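ugh ok so i messed up the first submission bc i forgot one of the chains. this is the corrected input, ALL of the components this time, i swear. 1072 residues overall. if the numbers dont match what u have on ur side tell me asap before i send this to the collaborators (the ones from the other lab, u know who)
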Amino acid sequence: MSTVVALSTPRGRGALAVIRLSGPQALAIVQRMAEVDAFDARRATLTNLKAGNDAEIIDQVLVTCFQAPHSLTGEDVVEISCHGSPAIVRRIVDVTLELGAELAGPGEFTLRALTNGKINLAQAEAIRDLIAAQTDAAVKQANRQLNGELSKALDPFKEKLVEVIVLLESALEFVEDDLPAPQLDHIEQALDSVIAGVGHLSASYSAGRLLQDGARVAITGPPNVGKSSLFNSLVRHERAIVTDVPGTTRDTLSEAIDIGGVPVILTDTAGLRETTDDVETLGIERTHRAMGDADLVLLVLDGSSELGPEDRDLLDRTTGACRLVVMNKSDLPSFQPFASCVDDVTPINVSARTGDGLPSLHSAILAKLNSSGADNGSLLITNARHYDLLCNAKKELESARACFLDRHSEELILAPLHNALKWLGQITGEKTTEDILSEIFATFCIGK
Amino acid sequence: MFDERFDVIVIGAGHAGCEAASAAARLGAETGLITLNLDLVGQMSCNPAIGGIAKGHLVREIDALGGIMGRVIDRTGIQFRLLNRSRGPAVQSPRAQADRMRYRAEMRRTLEGTSNLHLRQGKVVDFILDHGEVAGVELEDGRRFSARAVVVATGTFLNGLIHTGRRTYRGGRAGEPPSIELAESLKRLGFPVGRLKTGTPPRLDGRTIDWDAFEPQPGDQVPVPFSFSTDRLEQKQINCHIGYTTPEVHDSIRQNLSESPLYSGAIKGVGPRYCPSIEDKVVKFSDKSRHQLFLEPEGHDTNEVYLNGFSTSLPAELQQDLVRMIPGLDEARVIRPGYAIEYDFVDPRELGPDLQTARVRGLFHAGQINGTTGYEEAACQGLIAGINAALYTQNRGGIRMRREESYIGVLIEDLIKQGVDEPYRIFTSRAEYRLALRYDNADERLERYGREIGLVGDSDWERFNSRQTRLALLRKALDETRLRKSDAQHAAVSALLNADLGDVISLAQLAKRPRVTANLIMSLLPGELKPVTESDLSSVLADSLYEGYLNSQKATIAKLYQHDGLRIPGDMAFQAISGLSNEVVERLDRARPQTFGEARRLPGLTPAALSTLLVFLSVQQKAI
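and heres the new structure output, hopefully the right one now
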């Protein structure tokens, strides 16, 4: 087995960088570069690194060794924390390559951990999510799945499902044994609770997906109500995320910001409309498209004047969407703070100019996005494959339940139950089939 | 230097050995069947019954392939019941009580009537090898027989050790000597050997039983035979009886547990969880106030009664006391005490799907030596081993049973891929494709294989084909016979089912509705199709009941095998793949599979190992 090396922290200049080696030669390679004679397992040791005995010092680093199998990959692993200069990192990696290491392929550390049984599939996917995670809340969520929380959350349902399967199977297989008749209401309750549990987890996907991919929030409203001002003050008020996500640079009308840990892609549809020469029609169409794509629509109205027919029209048309109504210009004397434009709408009053009311808007946006509980500490599904599998399982469970209520013979109820167990098993990788693995590794391209 | 020359030698004339010898001989191989006692050919060591859930499926499959067990039990069965009648057709299964002595006699008559088949009494003590391949066997009395293929079907005789109470003695069955030398020679050849345990209950004198204290259990009014060729049963049919243990019996067992070799630690072998001794039942299910017992007559020519459900290895004198505590058995006398037996088995992961060992070419293992339990499990392995042994000596390719096509395939694949850690019994739940594997369609699934190999004779083949033609006609009729709103029958059926049937409905569609019985469909069939037999109609209706499920299963099967074409480079260094155990690497190196599909079918390759291999093959292909 080869020994692989890779930079484990993001590329570019930082205070520190971590270089990781994994494989049988990891310790020997680092030992030949280090000035100290030996490393204690799992203890950080300060040492100078050199290219060879007489060579000059490359950097003063912290070295931590993890001996097989007690490491991330199950192999000998050495982590070198060096200073975060790209030149130093490149020099250290180059020397390890000269000493026999190979550059790790994409996902190779995770692959090794998986093949050595250190992590299961759900954890491998969580590592990928962790690396791709954009904000604190998403990191926290990815961490939860990494710690096997998804597996843990699923286990009780799988156990209950197995319990039902066992009851029905034994009724079939052991007809000659004097078994107590299965308690029908017990089976029904157990099925209901598994369906509810699996359903609850799969329903968390929309919130989970927002954490992972970012929520799309569109600002819309009639002309001259201050949409662009609101856009700019929101971007100024919140911490902008510096990423290279396409379409989120400053010269477009979208901006990626972090609202309470949720990555948000804020889009100002106003600009679209105002720069269009061919007046209303095209502009409205584009606005509608932006609104249709959005997870949340901020409908901005001018609170300093009476609502006009155009305002009411927009209110009507956005009724079905996930929206917040924002009354802007609260700093003007003519503003009517409690203007209830439509029944059952509670507008949020802000002044884009002074920043007044922005914290309330902030909370309201979070509350809307988190309606499935992104921040209340419960586990969220963030991975599309997990979501699909949960939906499949739920469908099978429901069909089993229907079979059961129709009092079909056990083998017909069991067919979908076994399928459901298979789908759930595929999430944690316990019942690995060739399919699932090839699918994962076809998409598994990040992760060191 | 050889006293006799055979093509195939079968060691042991139990249920595996009889099928193996019969199949090999009928395929044209000169076959020697060697047994310790010619009077005990086809002996049922334990309960006098064949079939049961999933086991009945196996017997039907044996029959469809051209085996003999189904015919022999049909001629000697004294009570037939189709189990799970209230459930769907896929999980129904035939079962029969056998007349133990007549079963033996009929089996011996069948074997003696087979050309090329030669019964020999003797004790095989060693294998004769030539360049690592089987060349024959050596007997205790010094005789040497040559053969190119040897099937080992030694049952519980390999190094058998019998326990009753604290007494132990060497034996292959009560009153019969064990086979110790053969166990040693298998070990010398390097086979990994383990230890299993099984047990049997006491047999009672039927004249001392108060039969009125028990509930009679009659057989079916219309018995369902095992063999597709059986038209009618010959034996007079009898009742079994059901009774129960009492808390007093349980207390007494608990007080005497120290006398049981199971609980004193004397027995090291692992017993089957699904066939527990009465000691185990009492200890592990202490909240149960009674355990069910079956009184099964051993046959028409004897008073002996088998006390099913009371398997025990407690001391013989204690067994007598315990039996008399059971209501209705107050006066009962034990004819033969129950006992536990430990025996050697060889790790079945040594075998290929043809049941040939990878270690010694020409050597085949079948039955309990592979870690299974049950006559039916043994017989189906015997059949496959016998067929493959004969084909091997004729330089013809072997047969391999697929798990999506037969319970035999499920059993063999489970054995050779997963090995055993307790005696292996077949269950319907072991079959992923259970809905497709029905007892009534075993012929449709397998008869053509039996015909291709040469075990299914002309008359059976003709019968099979005429049944297939009848089923096809019936299927067509069910699709084409439609009830229209204008018909009187439409209104009558709607009223009967209290359901809206729409403007027009075919009988096939009608059959899928709840509460529609085979009798109702029968009454609606056009006159020219009558008389339709109940069994034909149930088969066709079962096809239609499971159709939707079976289609989605087909898709699953196709998906399962989608990677089979992935090529493995000829110079693939398996030992360089981390995550593969040395054992797996060894197997891969020995077999040098060229595709993933070939690797997938290798014995001993765990799902985890296959996944790892697949990942590496995929990564490698991407790199190219």
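quick check: The mean pLDDT of chain B is 91. that seems consistent at least. The CA atoms of residues 443 and 464 of chain B lie 7 Å apart.
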